[in-house]
Amino acid sequence: MNISPFTLCTNKKLIFKPGSIEYIATELKFYGDNTVIITGGKSLSAGGKLEKIEKSLKDCGISFSLFQVSDEPSPELIDEITEQLRGRAIDSIAAIGGGSVIDTGKAVSAMLREEGSICDFLEGIGTRTTSGDKLPFIAVPTTAGTGSEATYNAVISRVGENGFKKSLRNQNYVPEIAIIDPELYAGAPASVAASSGMDALAQLIESYLSTKSTFYTDLMLPGAIEAVFEALPIVTADKDDEEICDEVCSDAWEKMAYGAYISGLALANCGYCIVHGMAGAVGGFYKAPHGVICGALLAEGMKQTLNRLEKEDPDSPALLKAAKLGHIFAKSEDMLPKEARARFIQMLESLTESLGIPKLSKFGINEDSLQKIADASSNKNSPAVFEKNEIIEILRNRL
Ligand SMILES: [Fe+2]
């Protein structure tokens, strides 16, 4: 067992507590009196929470500009917000919302310290390198999914024929502060909870099996995977289900919030495997929720990964880890490794089915789409490396 090497990029401060949104004004005040708030709008305004936040900012003497955004951030959106803010005295930025909102805030906080368009700096698109300088940024997630509150990249998308999903990335871009208030997650529609939850679960499992996983992330990941696997059916259950009391539900949201955070931390420090390697490509071409794509591909991507390793690399640590997850999911140590791995896949398939995650064809993906998706896919840090024709096969099995 090797402890080194590893690098850990993480927030300066993490506040994890029900009701902790109340701390946002005092945390922002530390950086100065002028801030920018970015939200997704709807759910925050509808619940009266946005008004409360605005009042607490005013009470603290903080003046702010408010931007409400929807959808995944495009380069045009980031450039537009940045241009509106350039030259103004701004001490900090805070984003309160889902992964797209947090990625918007993260990208704007960085681009306000760079000249030019974000396209110049996107991986695989631009040619310029980010300086790493940025405005202080506070992330307050309201969905349990991307873990963007813990990562140092912002995903920017352009959807369509020449579409892409690319990252603005610099290790300095981890939000200075993450405020995780599990109460903000509760009340998400079941479809959103299922989609973002499958994103978190995919990120956790892929990070755990990744060739870049470390001693440190291996300590955290099994517990976080277990937490999300247990909580996901509860937070997506029928709200009228009388067997699920408020206490069970709030406990489940805490587990989801924790799991999503760890999924971001793990991503930032060990990367993904084939599922996100394909999901990024699909998301560039088709307008489908990222979490649904990840959910649709998770069990099949993991199944093919394990099949390959069993044949070609039977000593791979990823096989041992998958067996461990099989024991955790089944709550039984009484299985041989191969049986435990089969159980792991089987339980992922059942979860996908029970959450109603649709297949890829629902989003217009068909046989004719597979080659271009495979060409744009990558293996990332997968322990099994797939050729393009094998990626096509994985996608085809989920049409
Ligand atoms: Fe993801």
TrEMBL record:
GO MF annotation terms: alcohol dehydrogenase (NAD+) activity; metal ion binding
UniProt superkingdom: Bacteria
Cofactor(s) named in the record: Fe cation
Classification via Gene3D superfamilies: 3.40.50.1970, Dehydroquinate synthase-like - alpha domain (1.20.1090.10)
Transmembrane segment boundaries: none
Entry keyword set: NAD, Oxidoreductase
InterPro entries: ADH_Fe/GldA (IPR001670), ADH_Fe_C (IPR056798), ADH_Fe_CS (IPR018211), Alcohol_dehydrogenase_Fe (IPR039697)
All copies of domain Alcohol dehydrogenase iron-type/glycerol dehydrogenase GldA, residue ranges: 12-182
Every Fe-containing alcohol dehydrogenase-like C-terminal domain range: 194-397
Family of the protein in this entry: Belongs to the iron-containing alcohol dehydrogenase family.
Name of protein: Iron-containing alcohol dehydrogenase
